[in-house]
Design brief:
The chain is mainly alpha-helical and 516 residues long. Helix content is 54%, strand content 5%. The chain folds into two domains: 196 residues, Fumarase/aspartase (N-terminal domain) (Fumarase C, Chain B, domain 1), CATH 1.10.275.10; 279 residues, Fumarase C, Chain A, domain 2 (Up-down Bundle). α1 packs across α9 and α9 packs antiparallel against α13. The protein is elongated and about 85 Å long. Belongs to the PAL/histidase family.
């Protein structure tokens, strides 16, 4: 594990902290301010628990059963029961990084001092994360309202020493055994604590934060592949001039145009319109790349604003306020997060679509301005990249299906008490698939564009220095260049890894300088 430590305080956390804990095993510590806030809010809950008046989540049932007052001797059982009964997920296991993000973000809210959870419960949450114990969480079980209930319940079940979890060695074992092996005592939940561990948007938020990190890499990568395709098609870089983008001042558009212009600096291919097929303008998929990529970048920025607000939030119901009140609220509704998750799936689908259109143009001898059919070595004997584009097209079509918004749906639950829900968890799950697919789509364009650039170079045209660096790095990563047909899947897999790990960006930046 990475020995970097993330300190959890009372004022939210950062996206970088979430990624560090979820993906890189960063350790978690509670600040002294968080411990003090936890203790103070617990005193308030204990005082309310001692009063005869019912308080939701402290001395009542939950959801549609909130009208029942629970006697003192049954309250510990009530908290255990809510965790056990709500741990009702089904389907495949959710990825380890998602579960770690889920647990860390719940700890972040607990540590805010607005939930009434005891300091020792929060410390156990940190201990489980630091031990590398990952609860088994299932794909289905959250409607994105009243929080990600089933996923969080499976995490809380592990804190109680029940259910199954994955150890740091990747083996799934009973949670109680794993806790004991790491010297962690199971928690015995008291008033409000079971509810407080379940009632947040943490799963959808964690997936949003990680998707944003991945998409930023992919958008920069797509600027590079767009530039490579423009170069291979002997397009013009005049459309990237900053003065053209200044008169339509969308920030992302200007950034993407600048990235492309820097990749193409010094190219001997751009502007070489064919004598037998003169062009006044390049096709939209080439000429409008900054507009499409840039609009997506602006969407990422908006989604990051929403994620930042949510990271600064304390999502629970009821919440403990500094003046001693414990108030019911609707802050657990996932609508703000769900909307941007869906918005990101839309822009990712459109980015994939424009990448595929450029790839198809590179392979079509009637539109590629002198490149061989399908970039084949001996067309007819060789099929070249014909079926690589089929694979890319299939991915694009799935991206379009994944762009259908989950948040436009709602389904009532809990005997109509919870009669409108966000479906944010579903939006997050499909976005993860969309991000994976987008990396593959960009990788296919990269593979085709680099092959086309190499073919042009063999004809005596000199590619840009950044293009040469991209080609060399991709070949070194195991994706081979032009030649007779061969087993393509390993080359495409190598290109996929190259793109999603940020190696394409890293390859060109020594030439271009840092790209945005």
């Amino acid at each position: 594990m990475d020995m970097h430590t993330v300190v959890v305080g009372t004022s939210g956390t950062t996206a970088e902290d979430v990624v560090a804990v979820a993906r890189h095993g960063a350790r978690v510590e509670l600040s002294s301010a968080a411990v003090d806030a936890l203790a103070a809010s617990r005193l308030i809950v204990d005082a309310l628990a001692a009063k005869p008046e019912p308080v939701y989540g402290v001395s009542t049932g939950f959801g549609a059963l909130a009208s029942r007052h629970i006697s003192t001797e049954l309250r510990a059982q009530l908290q255990r029961n809510i965790v056990r009964s709500h741990a009702a997920g089904m389907g495949p296991r959710v990825e380890r990084e998602v579960v770690r993000a889920l647990m860390f973000l719940r700890l972040k809210t607990v540590a805010s001092g607005h939930t009434g959870v005891r300091p020792e419960v929060a410390q156990t949450m940190a201990d489980v994360l630091n031990a590398g114990i990952t609860p088994v969480v299932h794909e289905y079980g959250s409607l994105g309202c009243s929080g990600d209930l089933a996923p969080l319940s499976h995490c809380a079940l592990t804190l109680m020493g029940e259910g199954d979890a994955e150890g740091p060695d990747g083996t799934v074992r009973p949670a109680g055994e794993l806790l004991a092996a790491h010297g962690i005592a199971p928690v015995e939940l008291r008033e409000k604590e079971g509810l407080a561990l379940l009632n947040g948007t943490d799963g959808m938020l964690g997936m949003l934060v990680m998707a944003l990190a991945d998409l930023r890499t992919l958008y920069t990568s797509a600027d590079i592949t767009a530039a490579l395709s423009l170069e291979a098609l002997l397009g013009t870089d005049k459309v990237l001039a900053p003065e053209l983008h200044a008169i339509r001042p969308h920030p992302g558009q200007g950034v993407s145009a600048d990235n492309m212009l820097r990749v193409l600096a010094g190219s001997g291919l751009t502007g070489h319109h064919q004598d037998d097929a003169p062009r006044v303008q390049d096709a939209y998929s080439v000429r409008c790349a900054p507009q499409v990529n840039g609009a997506g970048r602006d969407t990422l920025d908006y989604a990051a604003v929403v994620a930042g607000r949510e990271l600064a939030s304390s999502v629970d119901n009821p919440v403990v306020l500094p003046d001693g009140r414990v108030e019911s609220n609707g802050n657990f509704h996932g609508a703000p997060v769900a909307y941007v998750l869906d918005f990101l799936a839309i822009v990712a689908a459109d980015l994939g679509s424009i990448c595929e259109r450029r790839t198809d143009r590179l392979l079509d001898k009637n539109r590629s301005h002198g490149l061989p059919p399908f970039l084949a070595d001996d067309a007819g004997v060789d099929s070249g990249l014909m079926i690589a584009q089929y694979t890319q097209a299939a991915l694009v079509s799935e991206m379009k299906r994944l762009a259908v918004p989950a948040s436009a749906d709602s389904i009532p639950s809990s005997a109509m008490q919870e009669d409108h829900v966000s479906m944010g968890w579903s939006a997050a799950r499909k976005l993860r698939t969309a991000v994976d697919n987008l990396a593959r789509i960009v990788a296919v364009e990269l593979y085709a564009a680099t092959r086309a650039v190499e073919i042009r170079a063999a004809e005596g045209l000199v590619p840009a220095a950044a293009s040469q660096a991209a080609v060399a790095a991709l070949r070194a990563a195991g994706a081979e260049g032009p030649g007779p047909d061969r087993f393509l899947a390993p080359d495409l897999a190598a290109a996929d890894t190259f793109v999603r790990e940020g190696a394409l960006v890293a390859a060109v930046e020594p030439v271009t300088g840092p790209l945005a």
